[in-house]
Structures are given as structure tokens and as C-alpha cells.
Amino acid sequence: xxxxxxxxxxxLCLVFVLAGCSSDAGQTAVPADPGEEPSGQAExxxxxxxxxxxxxxxxxxxxxxxxxxxxxxxxxxxxxWATWCPPCLEEMDELAAFAKTLPDNVQLITYCVDGTQHRxxxxxxxxxxxxxxxxxxxxNGDFTTLIEQMQYVPTTLFVDSVGCxxxxxxxxxxxxxxxxxTECINAGLKSLGKGTL
Length: 197
Hints:
Layout: H1 3-19, E1 30-31, E2 55-58, E3 63-65, H2 66-70, E4 75-81, H3 86-99, E5 106-112, H4 119-129, E6 135-139, H5 142-149, E7 152-153, E8 155-159, E9 170-171, H6 177-191
Parallel strand pairs: 4-5, 5-6
Antiparallel strand pairs: 1-7, 2-3, 2-6, 4-8, 8-9
Helix pairs in contact: 3-4
């Protein structure tokens, strides 16, 4: 390989690495595995599998199932994030504030993808943001399948009372989190024949 070809290859690699973390519509996302290089732009609306059957460990030390987590709620918003993800951390205050505005039939929970390894940091981030909801730090079953397919964090899912997806997922941090989440929640509620927010 000539010196000129090697330089062009290096420049091309740097362009891909620097541009790979951005996504559409003013959103940002980072690879879900911190050891991975960005593989391109994250896409809005990736169709993940339903997450009906799983057991989860929660940040507070308790255990739950998907059935228990989603029961009694028309829509559950699941924000998947990581302690090493700058866009995740930047949106946490807004996420916590939005969660407090939701009616009784809608809830927002989080899943910290590295929560088992970084429990104290996960707790600190959520406490500083004022998030008072449920946070999962590990899960098996259908949730494992979902996590294996997840390429970027933050990724946010919208599911019904049994874990079936109601609309496309949001990948990255929306410019206006409350507006983007409300739009997805309302789409889910409408599909269930319920009143919107």
C-alpha cells in the first residue's frame, strides 16, 4: 500500500469514527457496547422484539418480572441508557422531569445497561437527576433478546401492559424529549383506543 493510500484510508476511518455517533433529526446516540466503534447513523424506529417474558433485577435490590412491571399501565416507556454514555446523562434531568408529569396509566422506567457493574454510579446519576421511578439493572428472557439487538444508547421503547410494542422505538436523544415521548405515547394510547395525553 502506498503512503498516499494509507493516508486516505486513515482520513476515511477518522471521518467514520467522528460522524458515526450522530443520528437523524438532531438526535445523538452512542454504541450500546462501549468497546464498539460507531457503525454509522442510528435509525429512528428500529423494530425490536416484544418483551413479554423476562425476570429483572432492580436497582433497589428487589426482583420483578415483565408481567409485574407492566401490569396496570396502558403504556410503559423504557429508556435504556448507560453510565458511560454522554447523551444518556445529558437527557436524564429532562427524563426525570417528564416522568413526573405522566398520568397513572402511563409510566416511565429505565434500564441501565451497565447497572450491574456500576450500581453506585447508576444510583448517583438517577438521584442527581431526581428520577424516582423504577430502574432495571439486569434482565433475562425476552429482554436479553432485545438487548442483543440494541446497537445504540439511549434507546427508548414504548410497550403495552403485556410488553408488546406499541410504536417504533426512539434511538438517540430527541431535541425535545417531552414532545417526542408524548407523540409516541399518544400513538400507543390511540392504538389501544384510549384517550391521549
